[in-house]
Amino acid sequence: MGQKVAFTYNLKRKVEEGLPDDYYSEFDSKETIEAIANGLRSRGNEVFLVEADKGLLNWLQSNKIDIVFNIAEGINGESREAQVPAILDFLGVPYTGSGVLALSASLDKAFTKKIFEQAGIPTPRYKLIEEPAEISDEGLRYPLIVKPNREGSGKGITITSVVRNRAELEKEVCKTYKTYRQEILVEEFIEGRELTVGIIGNSPPAVLPILEIDFSNCRASGEFFYTWKVKEFEKEVEDSKGLSPIWHCPARLTKQEEALVGDTAIKAFNALGCVDLSRVDIILDKEGVPYVLEINPLPGLDPIDSNFPFIAKCAGLDYPALMNRILDVAIERHTKNGSLVLHERSLR
Fold it and tell me: pTM for the whole thing?
């Protein structure tokens, strides 16, 4: 017998005039929401679609469910990804994915890097700029990359985000601050192989096949790293814009490199206190050092465009199987700590 699953999400909408083009990039399309719901239903779960808006608390108080499958990115505030888990913790409702602390920390890039530094995990040197008047490149080596500190999905990262001198840095920081009105992260741009590591499960978490993103065919566009535009358009059927890097999974790594990258990703996962699933973005530099850029405990689950489902497919998990595996590892975790009483059924 399946579970009663509330599926919480934020729906992608048309960008209103005056907002950045990437404003809703973290939210999910109707197609992704339907694919996830159908994947969960394929194993007999009863799925209730619940948009994570201001009516969520009332819905949860009015409906009896067993567990929440959560992909909601949140709407407002510096810890918006933690909004739904905070409500669920308050009500004592089990859910998939990481909790309030991990989601709050991971959305703040500079705070995440401090945790990595304390844990001895390599991460590029950086400075956090509170406002343009405080721009500093002291102790940093060019080229640098400029990012909004509290955004995901490549938001605010463009072809001009990589800067090679002080004048370019000042111009880019001012532009990014004007658009996003938040602290700006400036970090050393590490040249090397761009890797993404999918992690699923607990006690212990498992590393899925490592994905390498090869930008060698993006020369026409100049988008030689993961900008927002690449993330948004990389899986177009016909790419005439030079925005579709090649995905190699498993990555073209030696056994030693594969083990080092996987171990580093697990250390990052544990350092942030993540559970159930995460995606860790790493640059392996020319000296073989795996620099962790960031970790995403709410990785995209678009069945066509997102890295995580592609990685899972390479591990032998089709899309419905992946959705139910995420549900299972969360159920196993909550059952172990006594916060969930299961219907009678075997976990796979």
Answer: 0.91
Backbone angles phi, psi at 207, to 5 degrees: -90, 125
Nearest to 247 by CA among 263, 230, 261, 259: 230
**CA distances in angstroms from 273 to 31, 67, 101, 165, 329, listed in the order given:** 31, 20, 8, 37, 15
- Cβ atoms of 247 and 211 within 8 Å: the answer is yes
Q: Quote the CA–CA distance of 291 and 285 in Å, as a whole number.
A: 7
Distance separating alpha carbons of residues 192 and 40, to the nearest angstrom? 38
The H or E element that residue 179 is part of is helix 166-180
**pLDDT reported for residue 62:** 96
- Spatial CB neighbours of 347, under 8 Å, sequence gap ≥ 6: 328, 331, 332
**Residues in a beta bridge with 196:** 211, 281
Spatial distance between the Cα atoms of 70 and 343, rounded to a whole number of angstroms: 20
Measured between alpha carbons, how far is residue 135 from residues 85, 102, 161, 333 in Å?
35, 29, 15, 45
The Cα 144–Cα 111 span in angstroms is 19
Q: Are 309 and 302 in contact (CB under 8 A)?
A: yes
Tens of pLDDT, residue by residue over 165-208, are: 999 999 999 999 999 999 999 999 999 999 999 999 999 999 99
Indicate the pairing of strand 144-148 with strand 192-200. unpaired
Q: Which two tokens stand for residue 265?
A: 């990703």
DSSP per-residue letters across 104-169: HHHHSHHHHHHHHHHTT-----EEEESSGGG---TT--SSEEEEETT--TTTT--TTSEE-SHHHH
Nearest to 200 by CA among 324, 337, 55, 64: 324
List the domains of the chain with CATH numbers: 4-96 (3.40.50.20), 125-188 (3.30.1490.20)
- Residue-wise pLDDT for 1-19, tens only, equals 689 999 999 998 888 877 7
d(CA 141, CA 49): 48
In the chain, helix, strand, coil percent, each to 5? 35, 20, 45
